[in-house]
Design brief:
single chain; about 280 residues; TIM Barrel; 10-stranded mixed beta sheet; two-stranded antiparallel sheet; 10 helices; about 35% helix; about 20% strand; binds S-adenosylmethionine; binds iron/sulfur cluster
């Protein structure tokens, strides 16, 4: 199962490409909701998922947002996932990672990940996210390397304007010995400055990247068998909306409904996953 929980809408940046506009509601997920979702996920993985996938795996909870480190209880959230024996990934713009690591670093294992969103070389990243942002991420990665707490990597969103930044990613990969680089497809928004790749260009980009970075990864919900969003997992908003995934915010349920009643485990058992051109890639050339 994939579980990607957006614990807050709040964010201290206003990135040009963000699918969460700054004028959206500024909600924060209460701890009780987070706890119930994680508990149900643990139950599903133990009792239901093996039916769909054949073998249980150690479950990972992805904590995202908005900027998740702005949630006043993020340390409690991370601690809860670890107390349940699950793995955690935090997707962040890097600003408050030191505070987070000071609180929870001792609980993290080499399989827990901090993923920094890096959108290109210094010029491009700062154009998207604001002046000085690239250096902040590099400082945070220096800190992670020195503190040797969690494993860390980069989450990179690709579009037509930053394809040339692959070389810079490669340099960082070896400089920091990054465990992974996530290659995320950029989805155009209504009022947009950026242009997304075609599907074919994205596939080619991933092939090129993997020649140099073998552990470069595509989003987990976007598999070669098809799109598993809403079938074996959800992205969940701070208000408890169950979305098929963060880029395809098709509403499948609402907390306190049980996720089990909203997932499509029958389709998962039959391995009937739709082609992503009918889901998040709808309308992409
Ligand atoms: C919405 S952010 C939330 C976490 C955190 N604030 C951060 O920037 O890492 C999660 C990821 O989505 C990516 N993202 C934002 N807008 C996107 C879009 N329109 N299409 C695809 N990915 C996008 C960001 O670059 C980031 O890596
Ligand atoms: S830091 Fe993350 S959530 Fe905030 S605006 Fe940038 S991409 Fe969006």
């Amino acid at each position: 199962m994939f579980l990607d929980i957006h614990i807050t809408d709040k964010c201290n940046l206003r990135c040009k490409h963000c699918y969460f506009p700054g004028d959206r509601p500024q909600d924060e997920m209460p701890f009780e909701m987070f706890r119930d979702l994680v508990d149900e996920c643990a139950h599903l993985v133990t009792n239901v998922e093996p039916l769909a996938h054949g073998r249980p795996e150690r479950q990972r909870v992805i904590i995202s947002g908005g900027e998740p480190t702005m949630h006043p209880e993020i340390s409690k959230f991370v601690s809860y996932v670890k107390a349940k024996g699950m793995l955690v990934s935090v997707l962040t713009n890097s600003h408050r990672v030191r505070e987070l690591i000071a609180d929870v670093g001792h609980m993290l294992s080499e399989y827990d990940f901090i993923q920094f969103s890096l959108d290109g070389d210094k010029e491009h990243h700062d154009w998207i996210r604001g002046r000085g942002e690239y250096d902040k991420i590099l400082n945070a990665m220096d800190f992670m390397r020195e503190s040797q707490t969690a494993t860390f990597g980069i989450h990179h969103t690709i579009h037509k304007g930053n394809k040339h930044c692959l070389e810079d990613l490669l340099r960082l990969k070896y400089h920091y010995d990054l465990h992974s680089i996530g290659l995320n497809f950029y989805h155009e928004r209504a009022s947009d400055l950026l242009e997304s790749l075609s599907l074919e260009e994205y596939e080619q980009y991933c092939r090129d990247a993997r020649r140099w970075i073998p552990n470069a990864d595509r989003p987990k919900c976007f598999t070669s068998k098809g799109c598993v969003g809403g079938i074996v997992g959800f992205s969940i908003s701070p208000r408890g909306e169950y979305w098929a995934c963060s880029r395809y915010q098709d509403l499948r349920g609402q907390y306190p409904q049980k996720m089990q009643d909203c997932l499509d485990l029958e389709r998962a058992r039959k391995r009937e996953f739709p082609d992503s051109k009918y889901t998040c890639m709808k309308g992409v050339k």
